[in-house]
Amino acid sequence: MATAKRLAAPPLWPVEARLAALLPDLLVFRKPRGSEPELATAQGVLLGVHVTGFTALMDRFSLSCKLEHDMDRLARIFSYYISDIVEHVLCFGGDILNITGNVLLALWTVEQNQLSDIITLVAKCSLEIQEKFGIYHTREGQDLQLKIGLSAGRISQVIVGDEQRQYLLVIGRDVDGVRLAQRLAQANEIVLSWNCWKLCEQYMFEVEIMREDEAVKLRDMRIIDPFDFDEHFYKCLDYLPHYRTSADILRTALELDPDSALEQTLRKHIMKNLLKKIDEGQPMEYISEFRTVTIVLVNLEFHKTAWILHLCHLIQEAVLYISTVIEKGGGQLSRIFMFETGCMFLCVFGLPGDKKPDECAHALESSFNIFSFCWENLAETKLVSISITNGPVFCGMVGAVSRHEYTVIGPKVSLVARMITAYPGLVSCDEVTYLRSMLPAYNFKKLPEKMMKNISNPGKIYEYVGHRRCIMFGKRHLATERNKNHSLLDREKELEAFRMAQQECLHQKKGQAVLYEGGKGCGKSQLLAEINFLAQKEGHRVLPLKLKKADSKQFFYAVQTLMAIFFEIDTCPAHYRQERLHKQLCEIVEEPLHCLFNDLFFVKFPLSFEVSHMDDLARQQKIKACFFEVLQKAVRETPLIFLIDEAQYMDAASWEFLGTLLSGVPIIVVMTLTPPSTLCGQAQHFLQSPPAVLVPISKLAMTSLLRMACWELGVVSIPQELQIYLLRRCFGNPLYCEVLCQDLLSKNILCFHDLQKEEVENSKWETLSANAMKSTMYSISPASSEDQELYVCTVKDDVNLDTVLLPPLLKEIAVNQLDQLSPEEQSLVKCAAVIGHSFHIDLLQHLLPGWSKNKLLEVLKDLVDIHVLRWCSKGQELPAEPILVPSSVETEHTKEETKSDADSPLRLQEELSLPQTEVLEFGVPLLREGAWELWPKAQQTALHLECACFLRDLACRCGSCHGGDFVPFHRFAICSTKSSSGPSRFCSYKDTGSILTQVITDRLQPPSPQDTFQFQTESSRSQEAFTREYCRTEEEFLDKVNRKLAQTNPKKGMLTTKPCHCREVLKLVLSPLTQHCLVIGETTCAFYYLLESAAASLDLSDNYMAFFYLRKASSLLGQPSTFSFFKKRKVKICQFEEATFCCLQAEVCFNMGQITLAKKLARRALRLLKRSFPWTWLGVIFQTFLEKCWYSCSLSQPRNNPSEK
């Protein structure tokens, strides 16, 4: 939800209240009257609020490069703005009928003799709305303003739909009146319809007559003694039976007692995917998403002579058909809105839980069916217009806590409405829908460009004319060409299957079929291109063909096109086609039979007597026999191979023909299949036949994938963080690797270095060469040419790869995968995505409000079973003792609490057969990244804050290392800085509107010494803590030495120590913690944990990752100035942290062999600590003597014992 602060429903709300908050009182308190369509009439006052400038603002955002960020801001602006208006209307007793696009419609239902008083009330409400919210200034310079229309009189209410889904419509002359008043109003004006003006107390209003018998403009109200508006307000409340009775809530409908019959009635008015989320208990903050959808807008205009009751029956008939067709294609009929002479139906494909791969094709086909039905079956229809767009939108809640609606907001929503007006009487679609549908171009017709209001760049618009049989073959060859520069990676097993088929066909003189099966992007087309090259190199004749989904509906299409390629008539001009075909057939097929191919190849041979007496079945059999003869003769001369890409789209007749062909002709057929696909019976029979061999395509090995990435980027080495980025997103899929590499290049987030020029030692940290870390990078063998320049790449310091958005193609694939899961599984995956690639069960449960451990483990088990998630491997498993526990001094109370908490999860794990480790990771490519991108920014920030607060107390050494900071004295050094610097910037997030954020803003601060030593008294805490930390540092050093010695000679058993788990702490706590802080923009905390991560990495002898964390920290500080008095850091840090930063840099540089730079940084660290290193040998001797004296003195002094105090 865009504004969680306003919209977060209290957790104790029952289901009925959550449903009522989505619907008007008109539905909540209505009494069912009979079968649909229901028609009821009442007197009332209508208020229409139109937000102007919103479409223009969306257009500005649509032209931006950062569309996702702008869409989030757009949704927040609108939701905040409209929520204030909604709450104001509710305070005046109005019933919000709907929030459609940028229009709000409210109703006050009263008796006829009360209309004048209520008009006065609504007029006062309108004036206050204009005064308080009439203009909203945005940063983009596009102001939002309000146009308000009022109408009063007789309002007809209609319920249309069936037992599963119903819709409320308000119709009538006075409903048209409020729309006319809105249309006549200018920005910041209030206009009354003529009927409303006639019914009101006219002496109380200052007005201007706009058009006689049409509308008047309201300027102000005359408050004349003894008139008192407060008294009038309370008088009007007596007319409104459902006005709130509690000061804590704005609607009585939310306080109704549980009623199963009412709940069932209300559920009919809410979309299925939203109901699933409500039933699953998801908080309202978790429902809103940013995703790409396909929008279909159906506009029906009726003749003015149609009676209102007859009009209702026409709409009912249209609703039943449209909802059936749309749901069959994977969409939903979202809402219906009326206008003067017709109505509009807004349908959406791709809402949460509904995403399908062929979404655009389904939307076009459904639209064409609806278009045909409405013209043919709705008698009073004057005009049918349908427009379709595809693009990213906000799908979620807008409004206030007490009354909100699920809606879609985005530039494509505005475009679809404008297209209806610009291209009436057609099925029109935008260019994105045209391209993504993957339907043949001959099913579309380009439309002329037209100006559309507030749409600066609508793009190309096409008319969809439905499925038509292709009258030309065109080039249907393989779409993918073989890469001449690089060999095919990791496909030896698959190529061996093809070679075996060649040998079988050669020796046994029987046909063979090899079918390669693999998911999208696994390299099937590349494999066919390689086979095409190898076969032609060996002298085989290859007939390649790529099929599309539409081809499956055309009888015998695959064989028809293959034979056209065989006869070489697929691309020749029409007037040469018959002549060339005649030459090919004359020696094999009798000339009287040539006319059999007229319809098949679009030629005009004279019809022979023999053929004219054949029925359709006999002609088909004869055509197949002729093809058999032709192919048998061809094979005797040259080996023949059919290559068919995307064979799951082959028609049944072609499957049957190929199966028969293989039994009699020694030909090789190589196909690719994309699962999951429902194959016809003939295809199943073909797969089970002896000549057919099904070969699953394996994913690329890790080394092959990284080699491919180097090729794509044009480098010989890539850094470790980029390796992790690609491996976690690709999982061995070459298409994903190719698209991601192209995306990285287009976003300009990589730096390229000439390998030959990076040999010299660097004198600055900022220009530390890629060559210095080349030993830690993945590399491929350089080209043989000595003159060729060799490059390595690094990631720019200010780039966080974890937050780089997926390209649109890959995000669509990820969302498709996510929507195959149940609502509970989707909710879990979305929360896990915020944590990171790997996550702990306890933290996951922390983000899922209301989930028990039992429920969590059951859902996790289901996701593991379908390989969406996987338990970490044994090499990564956690030890039996928990490591995600703060390393503070344990009390008896905490021990008992830990023991009691651990019993039930362990028992539950045994029951569910789950491994003892409680750490999981994603097992499906792209899913984590796609799920993370669905969150609106405000909610995303709140969840990252929640994760950071949970992990903060765990960011310390493991129990085996006696706890504490990885940077000795770190938390003590920053304690004074933290207390003097005032409140954290996290407090600024209180205004973002997230309930989660409000709860946790004050909890996330860099750790203080009190977090570790809470048992000490206030007076002696600092001194004792410092002493203990000093002693612990010595112990840590000695333990580290002993562990190293034990590792070198373990047989002697020199030391019995517990295994160290700091590596797991770094992976599961420190590294994610830095990411969470970076995402939410808390750079001070991020810098603190980056230093801790770097120190931990050095302790674990991982020099490159230490360098990586320090580079991130350096980018947070900003570029240092040449002159110290000009130096201005982006992040405020204490002197100790700056010295620690330099010290860690020095250690990293020393490990990399950058000795000069290491010395320079070490000296800088000592200067910051006011311990400058001597510049002469005499100074070194003297300084050494002083240090020894100070050390001896410190040992001779008696140490304070805290237990004696």
Radius of gyration: 36 Å
What general form does the structure show?
Answer: flat
Structurally, the number of domains stands at 7
The CATH architecture classification of the largest domain is 3-Layer(aba) Sandwich
Cα-to-Cα separation, first versus last residue: 55 Å
Mean pLDDT: 81
Strand content: 15-25%
Please outline the major beta sheet.
9 strands, mixed
Describe the structure in your own words.
This protein has 1205 residues and is α+β, with helices and mostly antiparallel strands. The chain folds into seven domains: 36-239, Nucleotide cyclase, GGDEF domain (Alpha-Beta Plaits); 285-464, Nucleotide cyclase, GGDEF domain (Alpha-Beta Plaits, 2-Layer Sandwich), CATH 3.30.70; 492-696, 3-Layer(aba) Sandwich (Rossmann fold), CATH 3.40.50; 702-808, no CATH class; 819-935, no CATH class; 960-1106, no CATH class; 1134-1205, no CATH class. It contains 43 helices and 29 strands. The strands form six sheets. Strands 1, 2, 3, 4, 5, 6, 7, 8 and 9 form a nine-stranded mixed β-sheet that branches. A hairpin with a 4-residue loop joins strand 5 (144-161) and strand 6. Helix 18 (557-566) packs across helix 23 (652-664) and helix 38 (1062-1080) runs antiparallel to helix 39 (1083-1099). The longest helix has 28 residues, at 1021-1048. It is flat.
Summarize the structure in short.
With 1205 residues, this protein is α+β, with helices and mostly antiparallel strands.
